[in-house]
Automatic annotation (TrEMBL):
GO term, biological process aspect, one: carbohydrate metabolic process
Domain Spermatogenesis-associated protein 20-like TRX: 38-193
Family matches, as PANTHER family: SPERMATOGENESIS-ASSOCIATED PROTEIN 20
Organism superkingdom: Bacteria
Pfam families, per the entry: Thioredox_DsbH
Listed name of the protein: Thioredoxin domain-containing protein
Length: 696
């Protein structure tokens, strides 16, 4: 089927990829006046859609109305998908969507729909799958052409203006002249998209055991970049889910080489230009193999997850760089991403003043005019404003070397003062655009990250921030009466309910908050949300769809997310939550179901284990070790903190006032260390509990 579709796609136009366009080229791109036109997007809440509200293109938001219009006028539909901080989305907008001649061609021949992928990940999933089937690659902006009923016929990512005009003209002519051929192709492509959501369970899963798990880890290790950390090649994404799982797995005895590579990767990322050494926080990815030149947008989902990974890595290694990195992320979150309601914004743009990275890079002239001679010398040595940090067009990207770490160790106060000085200088620049959506799942990842930081460093502010954000999610995103969880909140309202990713991430955040605080309300709410998922989401081949059926009749097929990407698989996160809640509430069917879901994917995992690390985590729990630790009335100071901080991450900590079977069936005041729901002899001190976890 896939081969046939690839051949069919050559009937149309060859796919385009974003060129390595320079900043100078982008500055020369002509633009039309922004306010001369206003389209239907002006009434939308999404910052990305509002960015396009004054294009001369007659954009419509996603919905039944747009497709009814297409059917009435018998026009093809353009579904153009992006997000507010996407650099190449801005480039294509300036080159094509703001051009009145191009807009006329689009308006005359197509019904044009704009979609914010962060607002509608299910729509993005369908048309990304279509483009990947046709071109074997994807990205944003994502431009997919469909029949009036939404079935795709052709797509690609970024197109230069002349290429875009050719695409528009050829497709319009083809649909007028040979509509039957276009419809036939759409039928084949739609069938392939539907096949993509199917699960292909392995006939015999008995081989899913510790040896099988080792084989998957070995496959992952084969592509490790021993020089730069991460995996071989470029671009390089942080992929926090992968390093988080591998760190957990590597903390078992006999895995020192794997542990060393994980810590080496995290160190290389934290020293590279992908991390903002002046203001804190990670960019979305590095364009090169050295982590030097980032794609400068900053996403909450990356930084929330990386908070967790770096906090755990500090517990393993006590590396002061990891502590500095965590502090920097949190400082950035507080300063630039936190709303007074307790929720965090979604993203910061890569561009300012029409240039990618302009807000973050430095010129020698600016530094020489702003810093004393001694501070300039220190900045040059520490931030590598020299050949190591040089980028292009006279710009330098701050990054660290081993020499930088030595300077930091010797002169921490001087480096702190220098950062403050540069941060004040930078504050006078035109800021990148802010996407002020407060997305439920991304905020939930950040709650977990803040909790892990609290566990590692004991700063009560981190716990307060986590609980405040969790209260925001429960107050503003969760409608308990209607059993609805909204995808995001934005000043003035909330929008788009019942995405599996939000339920799964929020349940996980609630479980972790319970582990830290011992408060009944968090664990009972987690259980309640899981029961709502069971009630509303009808399974497809043993897995949960991204949304309940019937919410959007315009979708050509339900979507189902199995694998991890830059964010975790919703199904995997939910399965992990089921595993934990099944233990807490003695619901063995939940535990068994989580394991069954992971086992069903063994064939998929074998083909690409890096994309299924959150499923490998469940398999590791079930076939290797998973500790359930219940603490009942032990007076030893900081007993909970010590157990939580101890760097064995495949554990579940129960304590406090929660009325759950795992606690209420234990009468003796003691620490109960259990495995596979079987408890060892109770002990009364942290040192004894640690020995049990170590198998002594």
């Amino acid at each position: 089927m896939k081969l046939r579709l690839i051949v069919l796609s050559t009937i149309f136009i060859t796919s385009c990829q974003p060129p390595k366009q320079t900043m100078d080229q982008e500055k020369q791109t002509p633009t039309s006046p922004r306010k001369e036109y206003t389209n239907a997007l002006i009434n939308e809440a999404s910052p990305y859609l509002l960015q396009h509200a004054h294009n001369p293109v007659d954009w419509l938001p996603w919905g039944q109305e747009a497709f009814e219009k297409a059917k009435k006028e018998n026009k093809l539909v353009l579904v153009s998908i992006g997000y507010s901080s996407c650099h190449w989305c801005h480039v294509m907008e300036h080159e094509s969507f703001e051009d009145t001649a191009v807009a006329k061609l689009m308006n005359d021949n197509f019904i044009c729909i704009k979609v914010d992928r962060e607002e509608r990940p299910d729509v993005d999933e369908i048309y990304m799958t279509a483009v990947q089937i046709m071109t074997q690659q994807g990205g944003w902006p994502l431009n997919c052409f469909t029949l009036p009923d939404g079935r795709p016929i052709y797509g690609g990512t970024y197109f230069r203006k002349n290429q875009w005009v050719d695409v528009l003209e050829q497709l319009a002519n083809m649909y007028r002249q040979t509509p039957d051929k276009v419809i036939e192709y759409a039928e084949s492509l739609t069938s392939a998209i539907k096949q993509h959501t199917l699960i292909n369970p392995k006939a015999n899963n008995t081989n899913v055991d510790t040896n099988w798990l080792k084989d998957q880890i070995t496959t992952i290790e084969k592509s490790f970049d021993k020089k730069n950390g991460g995996h071989n090649g470029a671009p390089k994404f942080p992929m926090p889910a992968e390093w988080d799982f591998l760190l957990e797995y590597a903390c078992s005895p006999g895995k020192e080489e794997l542990k060393a590579h994980v810590l080496f990767t995290l160190k290389k990322m934290a020293m590279g230009g992908i991390y903002d050494h002046v203001g804190g926080g990670f960019a979305r990815y590095s364009t090169d193999e050295n982590w030097k030149v980032p794609h400068f947008e900053k996403m909450l989902y990356d930084n929330g997850q990386l908070l967790s990974v770096y906090s755990k890595a500090y517990r393993v290694s006590a590396d002061p760089l990891f502590k500095t990195t965590v502090s920097g992320i949190i400082d950035w979150l507080k300063r630039e991403m936190l709303h007074q309601n307790g929720g965090f914004y979604a993203a910061l743009d890569a561009d300012s003043e029409g240039e990618e990275g302009k807000f973050y890079v430095w010129t020698r002239e600016e530094l020489e005019n702003s810093l004393s001679e001694s501070k300039l010398e220190l900045a040059t040595s520490y931030f590598n404003f020299n050949q190591h940090g040089y980028w292009e067009h006279g710009n330098y990207i701050p990054l660290l070397t081993d020499q930088s770490l030595e300077i930091l160790h010797k002169e921490p106060s001087s480096i702190s003062d220098l950062k403050s000085k540069l941060l004040k200088l930078r504050a006078n620049r035109v800021r990148p655009g802010l996407d002020d959506k407060q997305i439920c799942s991304w905020n939930a990842y950040t709650v977990e990250g803040l909790l892990e930081a609290y566990i590692s460093f004991g700063n009560p502010e981190f716990l307060d921030m986590a609980e405040n954000t969790l209260r925001f999610l429960l107050d503003q995103c969760f409608n308990e009466k209607d059993k609805r969880l909204y995808h995001y909140y934005k000043e003035g309202g909330r929008k788009d309910a019942d995405f599996l990713e939000d339920y799964a991430a929020l349940i996980q955040a609630l479980i972790k908050t319970y582990e830290v605080t011992g408060s009944q309300q968090y664990i009972s709410t987690a259980k309640k949300l899981l029961e709502i998922v069971e009630e509303k989401f009808e399974k497809m081949n043993g897995f949960y769809p991204d949304r309940p059926s019937g919410l959007d009749a315009t979708l050509i097929t339900p979507t189902l997310s199995k694998s991890d990407n830059v964010t975790p698989s919703p199904n995997a996160l939910l399965a992990q939550a089921k595993y934990k809640l099944g233990i807490i509430y003695y619901k063995t069917d939940w535990v068994d179901e989580a394991v069954k879901m992971a086992n069903q994917l063994s064939s998929d995992i074998e083909s690409y284990p890096t994309g299924y690390v959150n499923w490998l985590r469940i398999i590791n729990w079930e076939h290797h070790k998973f500790f359930e630790i219940a603490v009942i009335g032990i007076p030893e100071p900081k007993i909970i903190e010590n157990i939580a901080r101890y760097p064995i991450f495949n554990k579940l900590l129960l304590h406090g006032n929660a009325e759950v079977p795992m606690l209420t069936d234990k009468r003796e005041e003691a620490i109960y260390v259990c495995e596979k729901r079987v408890c060892k002899k109770p002990v009364t001190s942290f040192s004894e509990a640690k020995k049990l976890m170590l198998g002594n």
